Amino acid sequence: MMKYLYSLLVFLVVAAFSPAHAQVKLPQASPAAMIKQTIGLTDITVNYHAPSVKGRKIFGGLVPFGQLWRAGANEATLITFTDELFLNNERVPAGTYSFFIFPQSDSLWHVVLNRDTTLWGLEGYNALNDVAYLEVNPQQAPFQETMQFSFSDIRINKGVLNLAWENKKIALHIETEIERKALANIHEALEKAAPDDWYVWAQCAEYMLPRREHHQKALEWINKSIAIKDNFYNNWIKAKLYALNKEYQTAADISQKAIKLGATEPESYKTYAKEIESAYTSWKKLR
After folding, report:
1. Which residues are paired to 253 by β-bridges?
2. CB–CB of 70/116 below 8 Å?
3. Could you give the angle at which helices 248-262 and 273-286 cross, rounded to 10 degrees?
4. pLDDT digit string (tens) for 192-221?
5. Does the pTM exceed 0.90?
């Protein structure tokens, strides 16, 4: 018993004076960064660690030509696409990929996407897991001390992903296929619509306004919306469908009806009043 108590006492003394190995949270030389952008219906996210120049020569120096580079620091930079899309006209499936740069010279680089997302730098990299090998031409750019990803030129289904560091910048052109996904979302929403949900039918019809090949279907949907609840908003959409088909007499008549119905919903109507009444005046002259 005494031997046990002695051993226990020794353990407690040692434990009391042993240093604790706690993790201390300190600032990183290359801090973590994340950027996210929605293009069309697709979310694009880049997670990376951002190194700084610190007076060094980067491209052709710290980042040698002819050698793969992790496009950041620490673990591999990751890029995620929630849907299939095109990068520099090359189709890339939805998913998360490691993002590498292969600078071959001062004027020719390649962007490499790899399926393995567990890499630390280049350790364990296998070219058999590459899913894209995209040619890019770096451009001279204003000096950038800390490496940075950014998005620019965002449109309804297009955009540009930029990477800038030191005095170089590259741009990846992104294009998403929104029509297929939007139509799938529309059909799913209409199948699940509640019997009294007039707005979902109106919303789907309104999306089709600039898509002339779908106007007949849009007319069916807006008539369904009006059958559920006849109001200024769905009549306004119906008027625009007829005007886009140059049926101005019908468009004027329906917009006049929308104006009358708007009087019963003054708070909601006032947002659209000027647009509807101006269109009615124009269409009357064209009929």
Report:
1. none
2. no
3. 150
4. 999 999 999 999 999 999 888 889 999 999
5. no
